[in-house]
Amino acid sequence: MEDASYFRLKNLEIGYAVGPGRRLYVSAQNLFTITNYSGLDPESTDILDRGTYPQATALLFGMNATF
C-alpha cells in the first residue's frame, strides 16, 4: 500500500490584450505534479499500477483577433 496523494497544475492560461480586438495568449496543460508516489502517474485509474503512461504536458501559443 502506498500514499498516492499529489498536487498537479492541470490548466493555466495567460493572456495579454495587445490592442482593440487582439489578444496574445499562452495556454498549458499538465505543467507539473508534486508527489512522493513511486509510480508514473498518481491519477491512474487502474487498480494495479502497471506502468501506465503519465499525462503529457502541452503548451499552446496563439493570438485572437477580430477585424
What can you see in these coordinates?
This protein is mainly β. It has one domain. Helices cover 0% and strands 54% of the residues. It has no helices and 3 strands. It has strands at 6-19, 22-35, 58-65. A 3-stranded antiparallel β-sheet has the order 1-2-3, with no helix packed on it. A hairpin with a 2-residue loop joins strand 1 and strand 2. The chain is elongated and about 55 Å long. The N and C termini lie far apart (58 Å). The model has no long low-confidence stretch (mean pLDDT 88).
Give the topology.
Blueprint: E1 6-19, E2 22-35, E3 58-65
Antiparallel strand pairs: 1-2, 2-3
Question: What's the gist of this structure?
Answer:
By secondary structure, the protein is mainly β. The protein is built from no helices and three strands.
